Amino acid sequence: MPIPRSSIILCLLFIAALASIVLSMCIGSFILGPEELFQALFSETDSLGKTLVWQLRLPRAITAFVVGGMLSLAGALMQVILRNPLADPYILGISGGASSAALLAMLFGIAGTGLTLFAFAGAMLSMALVFGIARGKGSWSPMRVLLTGVVLAAGWGAFISLILAISPNQNLRGMLFWLMGDLSHVQSISSLSFVLIIGFLFAYWQARPLNLLMHGSDQASALGVSVDQLRSLLFVVASLLTAVAVSLAGNIGFVGLIVPHLVRLSLGSDHRLLLPAAILLGGTLLVIADLMARSLLSPMQLPVGVITALLGVPLFLLILNRTQRVS
């Protein structure tokens, strides 16, 4: 009996995810060979390699994978509930709210956990504004949510420019670096992973209704799906995933936009396959991007959001060109 193509692709994505994490542990300003990596992982004696792997590289690689998985999962959900292939976690202004609150915290000298809490509160405020304004006194539609998010994102962008304009020069570089994506100060990996697991389990539980929703609201309603309730729940889940990712790692674009497209080209639109594949591919992509960000100009580190943009723009243009040829 031949192995299904979808199973092969998922296995390859899982292997690629593991390989990217191993590469991230090996490569940097100090290169670790296979034997040195094995000793660093399993030896009980203290060494430079062990400290480097367990305290710096492995936590950062896992953080990158989880953040990439969150953004990809959120992007896949938003593209379905808004029925717009260009929707991604940043189009609704959630990242703008998180960034604005985080920059305010930096302006007042708040760092560490306080910075994360500020960013998360800003993301939640932005989500509440989008949902409340779009809903108004009646039910909300995907187009109304999309337009509200675009306008709110523009407003947050202006507010961010104002904060940067009035910030002292000594704080400006750190603010700009965080704004472009920074994975170097992330804490509480277990909590971060728990959020991704819960978000995935809930989204996977709704995989069949999501498949029906792809064919239109009327057909989904006729088959017993409560469309408005489903959209509201999934919008909250996608927004929460984005809020956690942005509050911890800053603005990292294109992952939530590109990855769901790539997965659909390979596996189709069955969300029982698309959702786990998007997490694996998104996590792998961000681990590789972070590896490039800290290795290309070592010992100088680049913002990881710059790398994802440099990778994402040509990928998106290729996908757009292929879609136009097919249509």
Q: What is the structure about, briefly put?
A:
This protein has 14 helices and no strands.
Describe the structure.
The protein has helices at 5-26, 34-42, 48-81, 94-107, 113-135, 142-166, 169-179, 189-205, 207-213, 217-222, 227-249, 255-267, 271-295, 304-326. With 327 residues, the chain is mainly alpha-helical. The chain has one domain: ABC transporter involved in vitamin B12 uptake, BtuC. Helix 1 packs parallel to helix 13 (271-295) and helix 5 runs antiparallel to helix 11. The mean pLDDT is 86.
* CATH secondary-structure class: Mainly Alpha
Proportion in helices: over 70%
Shape: globular
Q: Could you give the distance between the termini? A: 34 Å
Structural class, from secondary structure content?
Answer: mainly alpha
Key words describing this protein structure:
ABC transporter involved in vitamin B12 uptake, BtuC; globular; mainly alpha; 327 residues
What layout of secondary structure does this protein have?
Layout: H1 5-26, H2 34-42, H3 48-81, H4 94-107, H5 113-135, H6 142-166, H7 169-179, H8 189-205, H9 207-213, H10 217-222, H11 227-249, H12 255-267, H13 271-295, H14 304-326
